[in-house]
Amino acid sequence: MPNPQQAGPDPLPADRSTDPYDALLLLSFGGPERPEDVVPFLENVTRGRGIPRERLEAVGQHYFLFGGRSPINDQNKALIAAVEEDLAAHGIDLPVYWGNRNWDPYLADTVEQMARDGVRRVLCLATSAYSSWSGCRQYRDNLEAALAAVPADLVAPRIDKIGAYCDHPGFVAANADGVVAALDALPVEVRDDARLVFVTHSIPISMSDASGPQGGAYVAQHLDVAAAVAAQVAAVTGVERPHELVYCSRSGAPHIPWLEPDVNDRLEELAAEGAAAVVLSPIGFVSDHMEVVYDLDTEALATAERLGLPARRAASAGTHPAFVAAIRELVLDRASRERTLAPAARDHCPLGCCTGSRG
Ligand SMILES: CC1=C(CCC(=O)O)c2cc3nc(cc4[nH]c(cc5[nH]c(cc1n2)c(C)c5CCC(=O)O)c(CCC(=O)O)c4C)C(CCC(=O)O)=C3C
Ligand SMILES: [Fe+2]
C-alpha cells in the first residue's frame, strides 16, 4: 500500500490552490507620470475615439494641475503590494504582473515578459469592476492584441479575465466603510440628514444600453452596488439616508447623449431642494483616479462649497483590506471553478456582451 507520507509534497489544500493558474495579471488604464507624458498619453487614450479638441485640452489641464502626474500608477503599485502581501500571508504562491492599456508598463510588454518567464496560464483582474465596453470588452480586446503581438519564438500564455466583480461583498464593504468615514467627517448637526450621492463615470447611453449580456448592465450594476452600500451604511450608523446615482467626467461630442445627471448639476438641485449635506461616494472607480481627485475633489466639492452645501468625498476601495481580500477570493474562486469546469456567471461573456462602444 502506498504510504501517503512518501507520496511527495502535500498538495495545497483546495482553498488556497491557484491551479491551473501560475500568475495573476493586474490590467489597468495607465496614466502619465510627468508633464511631457500628458499629451502622448491622451493621444493613446483617444486614438480614433472622436473626442473634441477642447475636451482634450481641458482634460490635459486637469493632469497639469497635478504636476502632469496621474495618481493611478502609484495606486496600482500600492494595490499590487497589498495583494502580494495578502497572498503571502495566506500561503498562496502566485506572482503578480501588471500591464496597462495606455501607458507604461504597456500590456503587450508585460504579456511578452510573462511568455519569457514561462508563464502558461494567467488569471487577469482589470481595475474596472463593472460591465461596459470601456470597462470590460475593451480590456479583452487589449488582451487579444497583446497576445497576438507575442514574438513567434515564444509561447504565448493563455489568459482568462475575471468578469465584472462590483457585486463582491468585499468591494461593497470597502465602499461602505468609506461612506461611514465621510459621514463622520461632516458636521454633526447635518450628519443624519446627509444624502448619499454615488458617483460613476458617465458613458454614452448607447454604450450603457449595450453593456452586459442582456444590455443595461452598467447602470443596473451601479444601482445594485449603491443600494448595497447604502444598506450597509444604514446598518452601521442606524440611520436610513436617501441615496442616488449620478455621473462625472462626461466626454465625447456634445450631440451624443451620455448618462446623466452630472454630479455638479445634481448638487445644484439638491441645494435648491434644501438638502442638509451630501457624501459623494465614487463607487464607479476602484481607486482615487484623476476623475476622483479632479472631477470630484476639485470640481464637485467646489460646486458644493459655492452652494453652501456641506459635502465630503468618501474613499474609493483602493487598498482597503476588504477589497484586497476580495481579490484573493475572486482568484481562488475562479481557480477552483476552472478546475471543476464550473465558471461563475460573472465570467461568462457571450459574443455580443458589452459591444456597443460609441454614441
Ligand atoms: C467607464 C470608464 C472608466 C471606468 C472603467 C475603467 O477604469 O476602465 C474609465 C476609466 C478611466 N478613464 C481614464 C482617463 C480617460 N478617459 C477618457 C475618455 C473616456 N473614458 C470613458 C469611460 C471610462 N473611463 C469613455 C467612454 C471615454 C470617451 C472616449 C472613449 O470612448 O473611449 C479620457 C480622454 C479624455 C476625456 O475624454 O475625458 C481620459 C484621459 C482613466 C485614467 C485616470 C487617471 O489618470 O487617474 C481611467 C481609470
Ligand atoms: Fe475614461
TrEMBL record:
Top-level taxonomic group: Bacteria
EC number: 4.99.1.9
Subcellular location: Cytoplasm
Keywords: Cytoplasm, Heme biosynthesis, Iron, Lyase, Metal-binding, Porphyrin biosynthesis
UniProt: Fe(2+) binding residues: H201, E291
Broad class of where this protein is predominantly found: cytoplasm
Leader sequence segment: none
CDD domains per record: Ferrochelatase_N
Binding of Fe-coproporphyrin III, residues: S70, Y139
EC supergroup of this enzyme: lyase
Pathway the protein contributes to: Porphyrin-containing compound metabolism; protoheme biosynthesis
Reaction catalysis annotation: Fe-coproporphyrin III + 2 H(+) = coproporphyrin III + Fe(2+)
InterPro entries with a match to the protein in the record: Ferrochelatase, Ferrochelatase_N
Protein purpose: Involved in coproporphyrin-dependent heme b biosynthesis. Catalyzes the insertion of ferrous iron into coproporphyrin III to form Fe-coproporphyrin III.
Similarity-based family: Belongs to the ferrochelatase family.
Name used for this protein in its record: Coproporphyrin III ferrochelatase
Species this protein is from: Nocardioides daeguensis
Gene name of the encoded protein: cpfC
